[in-house]
Amino acid sequence: MSTQKQSLSSIGRKVLMALTGFFLMVFLLQHMSINMLSVINADVFNEVSHFMGTNALVQFVLQPVLIFSVFFHFVWGMVLEYQNNQARSIKYAKYSGHANATWMSRNMIISGLAVLAFLVVHFYDFWIPEINTKYIEGDMTGLHPGSNEFRYHEELVDKFANQPIRVILYVIAFFMLSLHLMHGFQSAFQSVGFNHSKYTPIIKKMGNIFAIAVPLGFVFVALYHFIYHPH
Amino acid sequence: MKLNLKVWRQQGPQEKGRMVDYQIDGISEHMSFLEMMDVLNQKLIGSGEEPIAFDHDCREGICGSCSMFINGEAHGPVKGTTTCQLHMRSFKDGDTIYIEPFRANAFPVIKDLVIDRSAFDRIQHSGGYISVNTSGNTQDANATPIAKEHADLAMDAATCIGCGACVATCKNSSAMLFVGAKISQYALLPQGQVEAKDRAQNMVAQMDAEGFGNCTNTGACEVECPKGISLTNIARMNREFLGGSLTK
Amino acid sequence: MSTLDGKTPAGPIKDKWTSYKDKVNLVNPANKRNIDVIVVGTGLAGGSAAATLAEQGYNVKAFCYQDSPRRAHSIAAQGGINAAKNYQGDGDSIYRLFYDTVKGGDYRSREANVHRLAEVSTNIIDQCVAQGVPFARDYGGLLDNRSFGGVLVSRTFYAKGQTGQQLLLGAYSAMNRQIARGKIQMFNRHEMLDIVVIDGKARGIIARNLVTGEIERHSAHAVVLGTGGYGNVFYLSTNAMGSNVTAGWKAHKRGAYFANPCYTQIHPTCIPRSGDYQSKLTLMSESLRNDGRIWVPAKKEDAQAIRDGQLKPTEIKEEDRDYYLERRYPAFGNLVPRDVASRAAKERCDEGYGVNATGEAVYLDFAAAIIRYGKEQATIKGENDASEARIKELGKEIVKAKYGNLFDMYKQIAADNPYETPMMIYPAVHYTMGGIWVDYNLMTTIPGCYAIGEANFSDHGANRLGASALMQGLADGYFVLPYTIGDYLSSDIRTGKISTDSNEFEEAEKNVRERIEKLVSNKGTQSVDYYHRKLGNIMWNKCGMARTEKGLKEAIQEITELRNDFWKNVSVPGGANELNQELEKAGRVADFLELGELFAKDALDRNESCGGHFREEYVEKSGEQQGEALRDDKNFAYVAAWEYTGVPSEAKLHKEQLEFNDIELKQRSYK
To answer: Which residues on B lie below 8 Å from C581 (Cβ)?
Structure first.
């Protein structure tokens, strides 16, 4: 047998989708945990936020990896969807996809695009102003201008307080994320070759817990600040 | 039983096809699906029309020839069954039944419901074997004990009949269950492990070259596979492939 | 009438094959590159032959009518493959396998061929394991065996109920390796429609590309037919829908003698027919007889009540059941050979004890086995006071592990649960022991044309033992033909490429084209299936499990008339230059309509009962064996090889006298 090297084989692609997916899931978990702090204690939240926002490792190593992962995961997800669609140019007159696979697994592109749409809004809301403040205006203090107080908690609360439309969008987006994770979590394990009669059922259960708990955490924070805001 | 059939008719590989309606009456519930097709064809021949071409041979569910997409599912609504082993008792009087060929660009239609699955053969040519000559002087069959667990798993993978239902049913037209099963069978046996890394690389490369889609782990293939080939075989293929990619 | 020479080598039977191999002419590797071999059929015999010949260096062109070589009907064999490995230490040996096969074949096979088969049987298992065939293993990791009908040892290797599939995939994988190397050129969806004979030697074939309808010429230095059996002459059989006699029949018409066409195996454990629309019959592995007990009601009124749907089999008391095989054959019981088991079932059903609506079925009951295994398991697990329900549960688990897929298959087809109620079975046409006559080299009477596997006649005599077909196919393809063909080809090393422009190719192609043209332009009124069914009816009723002189004479007459009617009134829709499945069928049925006549002629000529050939006139009239088949070794210990003369029933008989030097001819007694 001769060895041929593929630039990126079909398995290579799915493994990269899985690895970026894993990274994004870890990111989601830590993001949600930090958000949760905003409910528990505003000072701690500010401290942690400031650390994440100014730590070199986070900012210049993890953040680029995150950006790459997000970018890669979305772009490849769409490329793959397109390719997969092209692999059957004449469609079935009748196709009963529900008979053999979950809605979530068949519609990752829909849940994924919904999450992407949300991300655009989210970047506009948080990330762009943040980058602007820190790297364009050069204000690395994390303080309210002319004050000794951290701005992070207040900024967060302001986004949800008296903002029913944003909160509704937020809830919808995390519902879609939940659907995405329902399939994505266990699928990532399968893609990297982990399938075991003993552990896979556990992974599937953990996946469902993760897919519900993490988005629910985000939603909880949003609703909390929507309802209990100091103003 | 009286049925309304909607059947894909296509004169040749280059021709355009379309769904054609047929009514059929007097079908017994004990008939197999293909016997129902036989009855329809006899009727068509009797009225001077060309019968519907479809692949079939053993009619025992083992040769893998039959390949119809029935009511939106590969081999029809009953799980763990090929079309030839599907019986009309799975349908009701007055039902409308869609009958289409297995569809994927890698499986072009030859005529009506007959498709070209030679892509599967070419994938096997690229590594679906153990390189051993026929000498009659290979070591004694019992010289290398094989754990029953591994032998049984290899057998489970090897039961694949190469029908293509996995491809037909996959929303991405991916062939990974088929390829995964073959790679797994050999990877699980000591005789096959010698060439395991190259085999995974070569077979996956050929699979990609044939134009099958990418796997997104929906699991539909496993559900529709008439022989119940497990998704674990795809995971094993991924491992074998990654192992080869990282070390070669 | 002339006599035929089987070319069996001299010497003691144990040494024949070894000394033959030592002295046979070989072709040197450089010359093999200049020699082409055509292999038609890619089942166990054809597939293994193609792979091995290519491995040796010949240029192989392989043909199959299926869309992939992996789909040849060998794939459907369930039970297993015999080999004299004696892994179980139960006294098996090459001699015993040889003896069992000759005896099982009712002393109508060629001794030397059978011994060779038994010798190479052990190599087959080694070879297949090396190829990655996942045979069943025990917990120690070693190969497991089961026992099969007609023998007293466990020598059958198996891979669940899919042994044929696994062995075929093994041969197919070996082919794939050679296809990848370019040594096999594979022609899928191609059907051989004639063999081309030049200067008395087989030099090529005419094949039709079934996708485009194109008629192609292919030349070679030798042609190998591994085209299987002709059981579909009965219309309903366990063969695949496409299984046919065409390749063999064309060779017959070009000079290959056809041997013992009447030897047909009717397999005892098939799922009974359910209606007139039935297109084929499904076999349940004979291995079921290891644990299943076969019975019918002992009282006719019970049988009638069951047929009328008023009584269930489970309601019949033990003493009202007739376990007729155990009653008639106490030594072998339910494990008597296939022909004996089949005839016994027919006898009971003919007497009015048959059970399903058609009256053509007997029970195969696992209740006793479930209890037996259950008790065994309860003891192993230390559950000494297990309830009956628990015992049944444990027993079912074992039965499921052994036969689960067969039970599932039965459930699917018959819509009945065999764990709870007995299965119904009935005999069906399964295998044809007869076939193209070949000598010890497996060469037919056309020099350069070989026949292997079920397509030839040589190893099974008048009846084949279970798990021996797979053994013979692979023995011929992997281990016998690759040697013997070299002997012939060694004289062909200077011949050079065979041209396809000769008159012989021209003539053969013209014949093929004319026949196809005739079929598609014949605007008749009846479909091909109509004729096939009619032929099947004649064959089953008059040339089936029990034959009479009167019936066979009528069969010849009726088949001739049916054939004439076919050529007048058959209707084949569609054209010649496209995928046309009706045209494919028409060609095959046309050949069956000729073969059927020769079949009946052969059966008529053989005034004895042996193996799968049972003439009602020739039975033991009295004594302990009353009613059993009566062989006539004095007058019929020969192979009937028929030469085509233009009309099938006027074929010329050539006899190959069978000599038994190592086995004493006895009445087969399984009592």
So the answer is: 51, 53
Report the distance separating Cα C282 and Cα C526, nearest Å. Answer: 27
The parent domain of residue B61 ranges over 3-111
The mean pLDDT value of chain C amounts to 95
Are the Cβ atoms of A10 and B176 closer than 8 angstroms? Answer: yes
Q: Which residue of C lies nearest to B78 if distances are taken between CA atoms? A: C412
**Residue whose C-alpha is closest to residue C362's, from C296, C307, C281:** C296
Asked if residue A98 is part of any domain, the answer here is no
Average pLDDT over residues A109-122: 94
Q: Which chain A residue lies closest to B169 (C-alpha atoms)?
A: A97
Count: domains in chain A: 1
Residues C488 and C548 in one domain: no
The pLDDT tens digits for B154-175 are 999 999 999 999 999 999 999 9
Euclidean distance between CA atoms B135 and B140, whole angstroms: 12
**Among B43, B44, B69, CA closest to B55:** B69
Nearest CA distance, A116 vs chain B (angstrom):
19
Q: Do residue A88 and residue B103 have CB atoms under 8 angstroms apart?
A: yes
CATH code of the domain in which C32 resides: 3.50.50.60
Reported confidence tier of residue A5, pLDDT bands at 50, 70, 90? very low
- Considering the domain architecture, whether residues C185 and C200 belong to the same structural domain is answered as yes
Residues B125 and B224 both lie in one domain = yes
Mind telling me how many Å the CA of B212 is from chain C's nearest CA? 19
CB of B217 within 8 A of CB of B230? no
Calpha distance A130→C31 (Å, rounded): 80
Please tell me whether residue C309 adopts helix, strand or coil conformation: coil
* B42 and B78 belong to one structural domain: yes
Say yes or no for a CB contact (<8 Å) between C76 and B60.
Answer: yes
Active site residues of C: 338
The residue among A3, A5, A79, A96 with the most chain B CBs within 10 A of its CB, best to mutate, is: A96
- Is this complex scored with an ipTM above 0.95? yes
Q: What is the pLDDT of residues A13-61, one digit of tens each?
A: 999 999 999 999 999 999 999 999 999 999 999 999 999 989 999 999 9
Q: What pLDDT is recorded for position C1?
A: 58
